[in-house]
Amino acid sequence: MRTVVFDLDGTLADTSADLIAAGNAGLAGMGYPAALDPVADMATAFAGGRAMLRLGLARAGVEDEGEVDRGFPLLIEAYGAAIDVHTRLYPGVEAALDALAEAGFILAVCTNKPEGLAATLLERLGIAGRFAAMLGADTLPVRKPDPEHLLETVRRAGGDPARSILIGDTVTDYKAARNAGRPIVLVGFGPHGAGVAEMGPDAMLDHYDDLPALAARLLPH
Q1: Which domain covers residue 187, as residue numbers?
Q2: pLDDT in tens, 100-157
Q3: Secretion signal: which residues (predicted)?
Q4: Is residue 173 annotated as involved in ligand binding?
Q5: Does residue 21 share a domain with residue 66?
Q6: Is 180 a residue whose pLDDT tops 80?
Q7: Which of 44, 107, 135, 193 is the most exposed place for a label (fewest CB within 10 A)?
């Protein structure tokens, strides 16, 4: 069956403000300034917790992976305690998921967010039940851009990897799809905006209203 796989952060939902808040909490917990900005550092937020800590530590004049390791559990704890304070689905997500399901597509999530946090967030956003499978960063021994993360997501959803596409927002998603030999659709409303078109995706998605027709074109019957 045809399967549409979604990244989570920056693709289904704008999680940047809550991620930045957690990054700042992690820095503060180690005694450093809370130097991350929710707007200016949005792209770093979607690059992951360790990337946020590295940036905040660099602004404090510290370049030490040991400090990144020390701060990461603090960040995760803070994020889990306030995971959906500011996070919102992008406009049109729920209607697009409904339309895809009605058209017979299997839906799944493949994210580099830890599985437990991803499951909690999808529940809080009210869309967890729409996905046949959800694999996080720690579900398998590998994660995106390793192709097996994407392909195994499709398999666990009950789909055919050869009949799947990935919807994402970063170079990590782009590489995962390319490594798996699958089409990649990049959103034009994520942290990098329309600039992701420079990567040469199979298609750009400017609004979720356009996704059902786009998926049907990339995965025809």
Answers
A1: 3-14+87-218
A2: 999 999 999 999 999 999 999 999 999 999 999 999 999 999 999 999 999 999 999 9
A3: none
A4: no
A5: yes
A6: yes
A7: 193
The enclosing domain of 94 has a CATH number of 3.40.50.1000
User: Is 16:46 a contact under the CB 8 Å cutoff?
Assistant: yes
Amino acid, single-letter form, for residue 108: A
Percent of the chain residues past pLDDT 90, beyond the cut: 94
**Distance between CA atoms of 91 and 24, rounded to whole angstroms?**
27
Distance separating the N- and C-terminal Cα atoms of the chain: 9
Cα separation, 154 vs 173, whole angstroms: 15
Q: Cβ–Cβ contacts within 10 Å for residue 125, how many?
A: 19
> What is the model's pLDDT at position 159?
98
Answer whether residue 81 shows pLDDT above 80. Answer: yes
Residue that is written with structure tokens 């199979």 in the block:
202
Give the pair of three-digit tokens for residue 57: 């530590």
Looking at residue 198, what DSSP letter applies? G
pLDDT at 104: 97
- Is residue 169 annotated as involved in ligand binding? yes
Instruction: Give me the residues paired with residue 167 across strands.
Output: 6, 185
- With 0-12 CB in 10 A as exposed, 13-18 as middle and 19+ as buried, what is 181? exposed
Residue where one domain finishes, among candidates 64, 81, 98: 81
> Model confidence at 40, in pLDDT bands (50, 70, 90)?
very high
Q: How many CB atoms lie within 10 A of CB 102?
A: 9
The catalytic site residues sit at 7
Distance, CA of 155 to CA of 192 (rounded, Å): 30
- Looking at the predicted structure, is the pLDDT value of residue 191 above 80? no
Q: Are 22 and 38 in contact (CB under 8 A)?
A: no
